[in-house]
Amino acid sequence: MKNTLLALVTISFSMLTYAGGNPEHVKLPDNYKTEFTNYDTRNRTNGKQIAVLYANKKATDSASGSALADGSTIVMEIYKIAVGEDGKPTIGEDDSFEKGKFAAIAVMEKRSNWDASLDAGHKAGDWGFAIYNTDGTVKANDLD
């Protein structure tokens, strides 16, 4: 399950910069920390952030297939990396960056029947995106 989710999410979230996002269509689930499965924590490929990933039941139940099911929702908590006095990233015991400041929350949701008002610039294929501040308010797409 973890490998399938990771492959799909890595590709989809890497598009987040290009897709922009639309919080009117993709809502931040209030219960993601308690109702979703926390399935991974990893360094982001930009070398500046750490991602903590959560998946809803639809996503975890369909993860053994080649594609996640409609209704799958993935939440990514984004943390800046902690840096030492030398300005270099702090590395933990598992060779991953250590988490610094909680910076944002990205949400992606899969639907094959998106409303026509969600234009192509706010999704990638069947995946719609939105980005939120850590307090749940809408965030501009500036994840740096």
Helical segment count: 4
> Quaternary status of these chains?
single chain
Q: Decide which structural class fits the backbone.
A: alpha+beta
Rounded mean pLDDT score? 83
- How many angstroms does the end-to-end distance come to? 30 Å
Q: What helical percentage do the residues reach?
A: 10-25%
- Using only CA atoms, what is the Rg? 15 Å
| Beta-strand proportion | 25-35%
Shape: globular
The largest sheet is: 6 strands, antiparallel
Strand order across the biggest sheet?
A: 1-2-3-4-6-5
Low-confidence stretches: none
Q: How many beta-strand segments?
A: 6
Order of helices and strands: HHHEEHEEEE
Blueprint (SSEs and pairs):
Layout: H1 2-14, H2 16-19, H3 32-35, E1 37-43, E2 49-55, H4 57-62, E3 73-81, E4 99-110, E5 123-124, E6 127-132
Antiparallel strand pairs: 1-2, 2-3, 3-4, 4-6, 5-6
Characterization of the model:
The protein is of the alpha+beta class and 144 residues long. The chain is 19% helix and 30% strand.
Summary of the model, kept short:
The chain is of the alpha+beta class and 144 residues long. The chain has four helices and six strands; from the N terminus they run αααββαββββ.
List its salient traits:
single chain, 144 residues, 19% helix, 4 helices, alpha+beta, 6 strands
